[in-house]
Design brief:
By secondary structure, the chain is of the alpha/beta class. The chain is built from 36 helices and 18 strands. Helix content is about 60%, strand content about 10%. The strands form three sheets. The chain has a ten-stranded mixed beta sheet with strand order 5-6-4-1-7-8-9-12-11-10, sandwiched between helices. It has a six-stranded parallel beta sheet with strand order 15-14-13-16-17-18, sandwiched between helices. It starts with a helix and ends in a 25-residue tail after the last helix.
Length: about 950
């Protein structure tokens, strides 16, 4: 409502200015006044039109028609004419957008198919219109007295002009909808190739007409040369500009948005002075940048997304104001007849051409909607006729203007609806989603009395993804491991979760033995896990494990395929257990859109060579559309390993790694937590009750409390942490009896020898510390809770702690660090964080430690205990800002929207940030 009031005020002010102060709209003020008024009013109308489901472009056109000289005259004829300066830049910019969308990797496999489709369509559309016009020519108010040969030449000439398409409007709709897909490719390539063919037919028809009307003109090839220069020269010139701009982006890369707009403005004016066509030059420039320098193409897309909207608003509003409604009123019977005839032959042509070229049946009925629009080329050809043949030629030009008025107004609506029906428009939040992981988010288990309970799975990743699915909905595919899991699913192995507030579907897989042990315990956790973590555990690779791993990944792919009722469904695969799922799924569904997040570190190329099936793993990940890692270091390691191992079969450019014609975006997107959920727990009165319960349970009465929360895994550095605590209590005896460290350890993979060994080592270390440093009547040095705690218990435990320790020897992220920070809205507490955890790349205000340096580690614990409150608050405030700004929903949105954006709009992932440099004392012995 506020915008409507603002629009009314703008219109009233403009009308009053035009009436009361004619001098205010003198020629000097035409352009700034027209641009300012158009930007303000057309943007408001475009937004209003978008609210009722129409393209914003339609709103801009309607503004131009209503406010232009033919109706309200708020944008006078002089202003509309002056806006053509902006229009030239807009046409070049739109052409650039279109060229960036024409990926050779997508077009090349179907080039012959697209050419057959275009030629068949042009033949039907042009041939049908030429025949109809030739037969009806005596009744048309153009040049009825023409002789039969001249009549048929005129019919051919007019048919070529009427049959043309509009690359400008088609590309603008694609840009507005951020569309990408097969329908988009067919429409864009057909509008460009079709217009080239029709311009050639037009030039030949005009040459034939000249010969009929003026026999001496038979040898006049000036027009053919002019048309060749227009087409070939425009494409060549644009290609040179594109190459130059790619170099600028690569070696300079500053002020891209401003440089892009200036280049479009100057380039369009230079093109017109040289007799070139800005739309074709822009397409060529974008094609060169987008295909030769793909990384620079992504940068260019970002610049366009920032700077193109005002230009497009002015362009389409000016196009609407330039439409001559009087021509439409005086020639409406002919206009209606030609619109109907063009529509008839367009639909017939697309149907026949689709069959001739084997266009996919799901998009074939929609293609005509994207080809309905007409614009600049039709007007340009009408102007050529008017300048060549005075008298009846001006009537042809008026007819062209009227036809464009209809097609340009209706065409964007038709094309936008087609994109939506094809599922190629920008994704909505509710777009179908499938998450696939080995571990399920909820486990149904029998109690001793036979009843069933359903706890949430422990672990930061499971909690983070559960938060995503609670908000978004969809299907989660996972291995069912609970004793009661089979009893609660339906006939399709589905169950709604969470049990307290169902919001998404859990699809369970049943992986039989010995496949599960070989896939999970064998290859995944005895092979890939130690391979990817730089710790002193030797990876073990067995052929039987690899066979089972492949078989289970194929089982996951088959289940995902069954759940993909909607072809627009996004598939989000989790972690190293499922590295081959995308390749297996793509064999079943080539159109599947998949992303995988690799939660653990990725090894260096040299370390990766230990794996006998490294090539298969690399190719399995490359089958995804997007691969995401926690840190930039992991991303670089993966790209280097891919180039080293696959050699000339792959290439890397910007964020993309290309294998043949398949592009895979490789990015770093650190995972976050459900920050808001933790804030809700903090504010819940039940949290204080739980705090008192934990105090009683663990005997935490008034002493200094430290906390660590981990799976019992050899990568978590728990023995090193306990050794540092032992050293601290040895050096600072005053802390005995007053310091308690609460270690929450969740047993994990205990059936594996390396894990049972680490559990035994931790048990003995806790027993040794408690025996050595116990004080009669004082606090127990280490309270060891050997099972999982729900987040409702972890939050009050974190809030009691003076410090929290995350001492990973190597870790992809470690969300415990972020959960501790999120729990401390009181700005108290200190995070002691290993430099080998991914979280250290973001949380530089923690005390950063090397867990292998036991002396330095012990000193860091002492510094955490002694840190003044003002330093705690400063550090915690900074870290909370980072954790809140990159929560789990931002993480998921970055990946899923990035998956949707590929090949259509820029990958707008935030660049990796360098952690704030900690003070020297943080790493030294205090």
């Amino acid at each position: 409502m506020r915008r409507l009031f603002a629009l009314a005020a703008i219109v009233v002010a403009m009308a009053a200015l035009r009436q009361a102060s004619p001098e205010a709209v003198s020629p000097f003020y035409h352009l700034p006044l027209a641009v300012g008024f158009t930007l303000l009013a057309a943007t408001v109308i475009g937004d209003a039109v978008a609210r009722v489901g129409l393209p914003r472009i339609t709103g801009y056109l309607l503004f131009g028609i209503v406010c232009g000289p033919s109706v309200a005259d708020l944008v006078s004829r002089e202003m509309a004419r002056d806006l053509q300066v902006v229009n030239g830049a807009a046409v070049a910019l739109i052409g650039l957008i279109g060229g960036l969308e024409l990926r050779w990797s997508r077009l090349a496999p179907r080039l012959a198919q697209t050419t057959r489709f275009t030629l068949a369509l042009v033949l039907v559309l042009y041939g049908g219109l030429a025949l109809l016009l030739g037969l009806a020519w005596p009744w048309l108010p153009i040049h009825p007295e023409a002789s039969p040969p001249v009549r048929w030449a005129l019919a051919s000439l007019l048919a070529a002009a009427v049959a043309t398409f509009s690359p400008v409007v088609s590309v603008a709709v694609v840009a507005e909808q951020r569309a990408r897909g097969r329908l988009t490719d067919v429409v864009l390539s057909t509008t460009i190739l079709g217009d080239l063919a029709l311009v050639a037919v037009f030039s030949l028809s005009l040459q034939a007409l000249r010969w009929l009307l003026t026999p001496g003109a038979a040898g006049d090839l000036a027009l053919l040369v002019e048309m060749a220069w227009l087409l070939v020269g425009s494409l060549a010139g644009g290609a040179l500009v594109g190459a130059a701009f790619a170099l600028y982006v690569t070696f300079v890369g500053r002020e891209l948005t401003a440089v892009l707009l200036v280049l479009s403005l100057v380039g369009s004016q230079a093109a017109r002075m040289l007799g070139l066509e800005p739309i074709f030059a822009g397409i060529a420039a974008g094609f060169v940048v987008g295909n030769v320098a793909r990384g620079q193409g992504e940068v260019l897309r970002i610049a366009i997304s920032k700077g193109s909207l005002p230009v497009l608003v002015v362009f389409f509003a000016a196009a609407g104001s330039a439409l001559d409604l009087q021509a439409l009123a005086t020639m409406w019977p002919v206009v209606v007849g030609l619109v109907a005839a063009r529509l008839l032959f367009l639909r017939l042509g697309t149907r026949l051409a689709s069959r001739a070229a084997d266009i996919e049946p799901e998009i074939a009925p929609l293609v005509w909607r994207g080809l309905f629009s007409q614009a600049g080329i039709t007007l340009g050809l009408g102007a050529v006729i008017a300048s060549e043949f005075l008298g009846w030629g001006t009537r042809v030009q008026a007819l062209a203007v009227a036809l464009v008025a209809v097609h340009e107004t209706v065409g964007p609506v038709l094309f936008r609806n087609a994109l939506r029906r094809a599922g190629e428009h920008a994704p909505a939040r509710g777009k179908p989603l499938i998450v696939a992981s080995n571990r399920e988010p909820y486990v149904h288990t029998y109690r001793d009395d036979g009843s069933v309970y359903c706890p949430a799975t422990a672990g930061g990743v499971a909690v983070a993804l559960d938060a995503l699915m609670r908000q978004r909905g969809g299907v989660w595919v996972a291995h069912g491991a609970g004793t009661a899991d089979r009893a609660v699913v339906d006939e399709r192995d589905h169950v709604l979760v969470p049990p307290d507030a169902p919001s998404y579907t859990l699809r369970r897989l049943w992986i039989d033995e010995p496949d599960f042990s070989r896939y999970y315990g064998g290859l995944a956790n005895e092979g890939l896990w130690p391979l990817c973590h730089v710790v002193d555990v030797r990876p073990i690779f067995r052929e039987a494990d690899w066979v089972a791993y492949r078989r289970v990944n194929a089982q996951f792919a088959a289940a995902i395929h069954q759940e993909m009722a909607n072809p627009a469904t996004l598939v989000f695969i989790q972690d190293y257990h499922l590295a081959l799922v995308a390749a297996e799924l793509r064999a079943r569904r080539p159109d599947a859109r998949t992303a995988i997040f690799w939660h653990i570190p990725w090894p260096s190329p040299d370390r990766l060579r230990v794996c006998p099936w490294r090539r298969e793993l690399l190719l399995g990940l490359l089958a995804n559309d997007l691969v995401a890692f926690q840190t930039e270091r992991d991303r670089r390691n993966y790209v280097m390993a891919t180039l080293d191992e696959l050699g000339d079969d792959v290439s890397a450019n910007g964020p993309y790694v290309s294998l043949g014609r398949h592009d895979c975006a490789v990015v770093s997107v650190p995972i976050g937590i459900d920050f808001d959920r933790i804030q809700d727990i903090v504010a819940d009165p039940a949290t204080e009750v739980e705090r008192q319960r934990l105090v009683e349970r663990f005997g935490l009465r008034g002493q200094i409390v430290g906390v660590g929360v981990d799976r019992l895994d050899y990568t978590k550095g728990i023995p090193e942490r306990l050794a540092a605590l032992d050293r601290l209590l040895t050096r600072r005896k005053e802390l005995r009896g007053t310091l308690t460290f609460v270690q929450v350890g969740v047993p994990s993979r205990s059936e594996l020898g390396s894990y049972s060994a680490i559990e035994t080592e931790i048990d003995r270390a806790v027993e040794r510390i408690n025996r050595r440093h116990a004080v009669e009547g004082g606090a127990v040095p280490v309270v060891y809770h050997k099972s999982a705690l729900p987040v409702q218990s972890l939050v009050p435990l974190f809030r009691m702690a003076r410090f929290c320790v995350v001492s990973s020897l190597h870790d992809g992220m470690n969300l415990v660090a972020k959960e501790f920070v999120a729990s401390r809205d009181d700005l108290k507490g200190v995070l002691v964080l290993s430099e080998f955890a991914g979280a250290a790349q973001e949380l530089g205000d923690a005390i950063i430690v090397n867990p292998y340096d036991i002396e330095g580690f012990a000193a860091a614990l002492g510094r955490a205990i002694d840190m003044p409150a003002v330093d705690q608050e400063r550090r915690m405030r900074t870290m909370r800002r980072i954790v809140a700004g990159r929560d789990v929903f931002n993480w998921a949105s970055d990946i899923l929207e990035g998956l949707e954006s590929l090949g259509r709009r820029p990958l707008l992932f935030p660049p990796p940030e360098e952690p704030a440099a900690p003070a020297v004392a943080d790493r030294s012995i205090a």
